[in-house]
Design goal:
The complex is a heterodimer of chains A (371) and B (207). Chain A is of the alpha/beta class. Helix content of chain A is 43%, strand content 22%. Chain A has eleven helices and 15 strands. Chain B has two domains: 47 residues, Helicase, Ruva Protein, domain 3; 128 residues, 3-Layer(aba) Sandwich (Dna Topoisomerase Vi A Subunit, Chain: A, domain 2), CATH 3.40.1360. In chain B, α1 crosses α2. The longest helix of chain B has 17 residues. In chain B, β5, α7 and β6 form a beta-alpha-beta unit. In chain B, the strands form two sheets. In chain B, strands 4-3-5-6 form a four-stranded parallel sheet. In chain B, strands 1-2 form a two-stranded antiparallel ribbon. Helices cover 41% and strands 12% of the residues of chain B. The chains are: A alpha/beta (371), B alpha/beta (207). At the A-B interface, α5 and α6 of A face α7 and α8 of B.
């Protein structure tokens, strides 16, 4: 998979721009707030239909404009395809080769990206919510169907929470318990499948990054539910979740929200047998995230035979020199197509090569060459 | 200045779903250019539909029969009284009817459970369904709600309500569309179809 051309129209603060990225590293250099990350987000949104930072779709549209458009020409398994996404009135439409994509499957066929942002580096010490989002991005990158599945779960969850707040009769609530349990069990199996593939790779990548005696661990299991998570079938998971929902129905009714299910679980990150959240140093915590990202890239490569497109948003300035050197050497050796943003070009020069395309971003304007 | 009468027609037409201002104008001009009988027939058809068509008091499908009389589906003596198909809306009923495979009766819920839109069991024709089932003539209820989150929850709600009454409750199968290619089926459908796969054993065994 390769990105041949990227065009942004009315996206965030960016002036209309058409770019020809390098098959290797493309580096966008600019000051904070210049629009580097917007460029990265445009590409991320095009490839995943999920915003990288925005909480509302309307934030992706340039101020005062009605719609925004991002178009990418990709080389996918030897064929050239054009993907396009248009954002207007708080919703979006996705097109493949100029035709409206009938389903997510059609749209996502073959394109995969892994993004790495300063927010990711905060994940170890941050909230469970942040770790869930971090985990789910990886699940989605591996299993695109997860997007629709997690939406179904979110809808069932919102519906049940509304019934709890409205003190709805038990007969009505139970019907939603079962719906929530079925959609929730699906999310559990997806997260379990991803962890099964990723765990060993991440542990191994952490050793390679080095400079830490103790090993890292990565694990995930549903919270507040009694079951043999590793072995349970999807149906058994649904039954366990339904039983847990029933057992907590009174408490949930009192509090007006659902207290068990995939939306309250946590990704457990460990270091030397202890909780990394509590005991890892800042540098070790970042190495854990770095190891996860490397594992994600290698896992996608192993699963589909295709290296994902890598998007790195000003990560180098947040890593210490040794770990940054590891990352840059890794990017250089992996041969993956990469889009990096940075405020300081010297930080990423080890990832650069003769093919590297340098871009300058200032005030939403993207130009070729170093500033 | 366009005449007020024309403006009024355009304004009314543009209230229709899927019709914008421009299309409304085109339709209005079409009516104006057509022979006057067309407009008279159209207005008469519009009035008739609101004056004569109402909901069947038994299945809540549409009917234009005499007031308080059940509809054609309910009175057709060739249909099977023992099987009842529960659908979300009239469009779904018509879709099933087009197959000509189903010869039982219908019951239209007029919606699905949707807490986010304030729709609970009381807003649907569920109480009326229970009254119908109490008559005892019905052996099987086929729940034909859509396979989305709300449709599933509605089906599960009905199952819990009807099973204790000793009625067989079934759900439409989900899977690969007929005449469809596996390669074009979406992942969710394929996964469901795989989970609900069936034996290829011949139904009648040679002894």
């Amino acid at each position: 998979m390769r990105l041949l051309e990227l065009r942004c129209e009315r996206f965030r603060n960016l002036d209309e721009v058409t770019l020809t990225p390098s098959p290797g590293a493309t580096v966008a250099v600019g000051h904070n707030g210049a629009g580097k990350t917007n460029l990265l987000e445009a590409l991320y949104y095009l490839a995943t239909l999920k915003p990288l930072r925005a909480s509302k779709l309307s934030e992706l549209v340039r101020h005062g404009e009605a719609s925004a458009k991002v178009t990418g020409r990709f080389l996918l398994s030897g064929a050239e395809r054009e993907l396009q996404v248009e954002i207007f009135e708080g919703s979006r439409a996705a097109y493949v080769d100029g035709k409206r994509a009938p389903s997510f499957d059609d749209y996502f066929g073959g394109v995969s990206v892994v993004a790495f942002t300063p927010d990711d580096l905060m994940v170890v010490k941050g909230s469970p919510e942040g770790r869930r989002a971090f985990l789910d991005r990886a699940v989605f990158n591996r299993f695109p169907a997860f997007l629709a599945e997690s939406r179904a779960y979110a809808k069932a969850l919102k519906s049940r929470n509304r019934l709890l707040k409205d003190q709805a009769p038990a007969a009505h609530l139970v019907a939603w318990d079962e719906t929530l349990a079925k959609t929730g069990a699906r999310l559990w199996t997806r997260r379990r499948a991803l962890m099964g593939e990723l765990q060993a790779r991440a542990v191994e990548a952490f050793q390679r990054i080095g400079r830490t005696e103790s090993g890292a661990s990565f694990s995930y299991a549903p919270a507040k539910v009694e079951l043999d998570f590793a072995a349970a079938s999807e149906e058994a998971l649904a039954q366990a979740l339904q039983a847990a929902l029933a057992a907590r129905a009174l408490r949930d009714l009192e509090r007006g929200h659902t207290s068990v299910g995939p939306h309250v679980d946590d990704l457990e990150l460990g270091l030397g047998g202890q909780s990394a959240r509590a005991f890892a140093s800042q540098g070790q915590a970042r190495a854990i995230v770095l190891a996860w990202k490397v594992a994600e890239i290698e896992n996608l490569h192993a699963a589909s035979g295709v290296l994902p497109l890598l998007l790195l948003d000003d990560v180098s300035s947040e890593l210490d020199p040794d770990r940054n050197a590891f990352l840059m050497a890794y990017l250089h050796d992996s041969g993956a197509q990469t889009l990096l943003t940075t405020t300081d070009p010297s930080l990423v020069k080890r990832a650069a090569g003769p093919q590297t395309v340098w871009l300058s971003v200032a005030g939403g304007k993207v130009t070729k060459g170093l500033p | 200045m366009t005449p007020d009468a024309l403006n009024r027609l355009v304004a009314q037409l543009s209230k229709l779903p899927g019709i914008g201002e421009k299309t409304a104008q085109r339709l209005a001009f079409h009516v104006l250019r057509s022979p006057p009988e067309y407009a008279r027939n159209l207005s008469q058809a519009l009035l008739e539909v609101v004056d004569k068509v109402r909901l069947c008091p038994r299945c809540f499908s549409l009917t234009d029969g005499p007031t308080d009389q059940p509809c054609g589906f309910c009175t057709d003596t060739r249909r099977d009284d023992k099987v009842l198909c529960v659908v979300e809306g009239i469009a779904d009923e018509l879709a099933i009817e087009r197959t000509r495979e189903f010869r039982g009766r219908y019951h239209v819920l007029h919606g699905v459970l949707s807490p986010l839109e304030g729709v609970g069991p009381d807003q649907l024709r569920i109480r009326e369904l229970l009254v119908r089932l109490e008559s005892g003539a019905i052996d099987e209820v086929i729940v034909a709600t859509n396979p989305d989150v709300e449709g599933e929850a509605t089906a599960l709600y009905l199952v819990r309500l009807l099973r204790p009454m000793g009625i067989k409750v079934t759900r439409l199968a989900q899977g690969i569309p007929m005449g469809g290619d596996l390669e074009y089926a979406d992942q969710a459908t394929l996964a469901r179809a795989l989970a609900a796969r069936r034996d290829l054993e011949p139904r009648v065994r040679v002894r």
